[in-house]
Amino acid sequence: MSNIHNKVRKVLKAACLEAGKIISANYGKDKNIRSKGANDWVTTQDIKVEKVIINIVKKVFPNSNFIGEETGTSGNNQAMTWVIDPIDGTNNYIHDYPFFCTSIGVMIKGKITYGAIFDSNRNEFFYAQKDAGAFLNGKKINVSKIKNLSDSLLCTGFITSKKSFARKNLANFRRLIFKARSIRRDGSAALDLAYVACGRLDGFWELGLNSWDTSAGVLLVREAGGRVVNSSGKNFNILKNKSIISANKGLLKKLIAEISSDEV
Ligand code: IPD
Ligand code: CA
Ligand code: CA
After folding, report:
1. Domain 149-258, CATH among 3.40.190.80, 3.10.20.90, 2.60.120.260, 3.90.650.10
2. Which residue, by CA, sits nearest to atom 2 of ligand 1?
3. Which ligand 1 atom lies nearest to the CA of residue 159?
4. How confident is the model at residue 194, as a pLDDT?
5. Contacts of 166 (CB under 8 A, 6+ apart)
């Protein structure tokens, strides 16, 4: 069993490092940008990185399924699904604002079992394995112990390609801005979740996310001792839910009480 764990971890690390090389090589340079829809942008690097990751995975696990933000769903094996966001925080990347990452979650028989998030700007590799913990560059990480909103540093996001979610979230933001110590809007949901996992943030919420934004980060937070729920307060389901609330166990209920979403 530990053999498969090692194999997956090695593939995740290799894929993330390769992704980081492509991303870093084009940081600070003019990028080829294309619109995917209303206020939804993609660079040449997003597409290239996703293809490179899939090729690396296929060499070791040829019978895999893929859910990728840029290439869609592919593969033929229901047992192992790799959920890929090649660049989470594309708008930051386009603007050379150094807060973006590569996120890969691995589902085994429908359950999120491994997750990796790589921040190539800081050379930080976040990794989690179900029931085995969460790690940052090999060191175990834990969520924070902050229990009160008034002491908390929170983070949220506004998905600008889906205005109804963003509008709805403004009301949540308005409610929380004077209750929390402060709120960030960093622009990479996956990295925001990794920051909750390692205690840099006390909580994160957003409405309107996709499975590739959340797959790895959800496991990281849970394995670091935190909780991740949908806006009804039930366990967050990566494939079904779009609205996410994550925090340490002491803070979670207080956060849920302030956040509403029409969608769970
Ligand atoms: C986006 C980022 C952003 C969040 C959006 C996501 P992308 O992902 O995670 O922080 O607010 O909801 O779509 O498009 O940069 O991969
Ligand atoms: Ca994303
Ligand atoms: Ca992306």
Report:
1. 3.40.190.80
2. 188
3. 12
4. 99
5. 158, 159, 160, 207, 208
CATH code: domain 3-140 is 3.30.540.10
Residue 262 has what pLDDT? 66
Q: Look at ligand 1, atom 1, and give the residue with the nearest C-alpha.
A: 89
| Distance in Å, CA 187 to ligand 1 centroid | 6
For ligand 1, whether the C-beta of 202 sits within 6 Å is: no
For residue 185, pLDDT beyond 50: yes
162: helix, strand or coil? coil
Q: What is the pLDDT of residue 177?
A: 96
- Is the pLDDT at 1 greater than 70, yes or no? no
Ligand 1 site, residue 157, Cβ cutoff 6 A: yes
Q: Is the pLDDT of residue 76 over 90?
A: no
In this predicted structure, the answer to whether residue 264 has a pLDDT above a threshold of 60 is no
